[in-house]
Amino acid sequence: MGMAMGIMSLPWSLVLALTIAVVSAGDEAALLAFREQISDGGALASWNSSAGFCSWEGVTCSHWAPKRAVALRLDGRALVGALSPALGNLTFLRTLNLSFNWFHGEIPASLGRLRRLQRLDLSDNSFSGTFPVNLSSCVSMTEMTLRNNKLGGRIPTELGDKLASLKVVSLRNNSFTGPIPASLANLSYLQNLDLGLNQLVGSIPPGLGTLHNMRQFTVVRNNLSGMLPDSLYNLSSLELLNVGVNMLHGSIPDDIGSKFPMMKTLALGGNHFTGTIPSSISNISSLVALGLVQNGFSGHVPPTLGKMGALQYLNLADNKLEANDNKGWEFITSLANCSQLQKLILSNNSFGGQLPGSIVNLSTTLQQLYLDDTRISGSIPADIGNLVGLNVVLIANTSISGVIPDSIGKLENLIELGLYNNTLSGLVPSSLGNLSQLNRFYAYNNNLEGPIPASMGELKNLFVLDLSKNHQLNGSIPREIFKLSSLSWYLDLSYNSFSGPIPNDVGSLANLNILILAGNQLSGKIPDSIQN
Fold first, then answer.
1. What are the protein's UniProt keywords (predicted)?
2. pLDDT (tens digit, 9 = 90+) per residue, 309-362?
3. Cβ pair 75, 98 in contact under 8 A
4. N or C: less crowded end of the chain, CB within 10 Å?
């Protein structure tokens, strides 16, 4: 009583100063307790009593008195340790960003006291344990990012019941189990929901289709089953839909082209979808990436895909899609209108008939072309060199015949060239020596003949060369090949008709792991330092 009367008798200005000092000391103490549990490698050298905590690295304070910490941003500082429960005393905190560090242990339940917290980012650490249910008390939260940690257990229903202001939820790449909580459908402001790379089971809650502000929805690489809820197709604001690598089934609606006018990425790969690819999909003119890989789609590819002028990535691999000389290849001609196309992946389908020559009219922005494990025949178009942007070409395990065109030497950005398991014939073109960036060249199991051109000695970045099992390649092996110090993985020239002595220069391949020359008419000895 006497002490209280004593304080009341103090001048108001002094009382205010004492209050400010006590409150500020509380924030400073919480921050120092946080630092005591971590190793910072000098990143937090400014955190000392000689300066006010508002000037410390990563700390932002309010503009009013008493000064309170309103933001703590220490992302990417290589901090190591566990989080102190004292962080829960920073009750005016609005932003907490500790991403891209080495924090471990459980997320303290005390963070649930941060009622003013709006943005929480603890991504890219090693946090473990279960989802901290107390975070559902942070009723002002708009963004919650916990991706790339080691969290497990179920996603609590409270997340959708109490955090009504959430716009972003990213729990990607953890070990969460159980179903997707149906309560997430209560988050009417939600724009980005990323639950990918977990171990979630069950079906996608139909109620998520009522979240009309949703722009990005990702559940890639879980164990989800069932069909995509029809309600999801009502989310006209969606820009990204990634449900890849689950156990979903069903077909794509015929009118999908009118459902997603703003869609940029549509990824349905790695599921059990069947049926045909609807032609209306070509009406999604905003689409940048379309991934339908590893499903059971059949029939012909819509011939109107070229209407998607923004398309950069098209992956239709590992389906049952068809084409022949009479019908089915029209989409290649159409894709010439996609002036930004970078990747075209058609591997492991039932495409047959001759490879259309119009493929050389695709955009020069094309970087990767995959036509492997198909039934295409005919020859590689003579003007393949027009596609000067290519860095990967894989035309393998097909019925392609004819020669390797000289124009392939124009593909100066080429890194990988795979032409194996075909029926190619003729000479290895000397123009290959122009491919200065090439590091992998596979042309084994064909009918190539004649000598290896000495120009291949110019491939200073080559680390794999496999020309085995052509049988009719002959002559001596160019000494220039054995001077390629970049050859480090393997060199396989076996089962051909090479003759003459093994060059003394073979010992120059100091970095080579495997050299295979069996099945030729060579003389001499391979150095013991190289595995044969």
1. Glycoprotein, Leucine-rich repeat, Membrane, Repeat, Signal, Transmembrane, Transmembrane helix
2. 999 999 999 999 999 988 999 999 999 999 999 999 999 999 999 999 999 999
3. yes
4. N
Distance (Å, whole) CA 384 – CA 370:
14
Polymer length of the chain: 532
What is the strand order of the sheet 472-475 is part of?
A: 401-402, 423-426, 447-450, 472-475, 497-501, 521-523
> How many angstroms separate the Cα of 157 from the Cα of each of 129, 136, 137, 160?
17, 9, 13, 6
Residue whose C-alpha is closest to residue 31's, from 50, 66, 56: 56
Tokens of residue 144, six digits:
């919650």
Q: Tell me the C-alpha distance between 299 and 108, whole Å.
A: 54
User: What does pTM read for this prediction?
Assistant: 0.89
Which residues partner with 516 through β-bridges? 492
Q: How far is CA 224 from CA 149, 167, 194, 325, in A?
A: 21, 23, 14, 39
Instruction: Identify residue 8 by its one-letter amino acid code.
Output: M
- Residue 38 CA to residue 22 CA, distance in Å, equals 25
Q: Which residue has the tokens 């590689």?
A: 380
- Give every residue of the chain whose pLDDT is below 50, as ranges: 1-8, 10, 12-23
Residue 268 CA to residue 228 CA, distance in Å, equals 10
Task: Return the amino acid letter for 438.
Answer: L
Supply 143's token pair. Answer: 């963004």
Looking at residue 527, its pLDDT comes to: 61
- Structural domains of the chain in order of their starting residue, each with its CATH number: 28-116 (3.80.10.10), 400-531 (3.80.10.10)
Q: How far apart are CA 303 and CA 278, in angstroms?
A: 11
d(CA 25, CA 142): 28
